[in-house]
Amino acid sequence: MAGLFxxxxxxxxxxxxxxxxxxxxxxxNDIADSHKQLAAILSLEERSSAAIDRVAETLSxxxxxxxxxxxxxxSAKSQRIHIQWQRTSALSxxxxxxxxxxxxxxxxxxxxxxxxxxxAICLGVGIFAPMLSIVAQxxxxxxxxxxxxxxxxxxxxxxxxxxxxxxLIIALILGLFSxxxxxxxxxxxxxxxxxxxxxxxxxxxxxxxxKWSMTDVFVxxxxxxxxxxxxxxxxxxWVGHGLWFFAAxxxxxxxxxxxxxxxxxx
Length: 266
Known about the structure:
The protein has about 270 residues and is mainly alpha-helical. It has helices spanning about 1-40, 45-60, 65-105, 110-130, 155-165, 170-190, 200-210, 215-230, 240-265, and strands at about 130-140, 145-155, 235-240. The chain has one domain. Helix content is about 75%, strand content about 10%. β1 (about 130-140) and β2 form a beta hairpin. The longest helix has about 40 residues, at about 65-105. It is elongated. It starts with a helix and ends with a helix.
């Protein structure tokens, strides 16, 4: 009875984890959209118009409220971003708890299979949620803070953007090493653990793919990009929720692979 309850509880946690993961992707991308809208409000053209409104407001002794409207618009958008970030962080914590419960309930019996399932959920969030955001801004006399450029990208969005801009080869390489190979490796590992005739070929394929896996290198490259982007006084950069889940996938899949390879060697 206890074993049946544990099985249903693990299944329920995984289903909830998938739902929460989808919500994280949605809210994380909403944050990026809100930042993009705020960057548009703080663009050079908009700041110039706002400066004229402030002058008109001062000359009219407050009868014209264009400057006040602009301040309220900036404040409201900033507050919205703050709330969205808190919501996404809370969902991320909830997802981490659900996945941890799943692994704890698995014990050591089917831990490898559960690790693969948890890694797959983390990979999905890591691919579709923004990983890195960079904003170039400058304080301009009379205009205040002006945003010169803003970019927020995840793995899938970066591949799509490279493809749309005509960088087909780079898009294919990035998509291959950061999307196709990780997904293929998870699927092959699941097949290799089964009793089917495809188990042995799948194990050989995993060894071949492992030699070309660039997951860890990709995560480190994003971190270096973050550090390089934040080095400039006029540039601010921050990592998104997608990076942490992509890194979690890399760690969990590595642990699962090590455990499975030890079983194959017995």
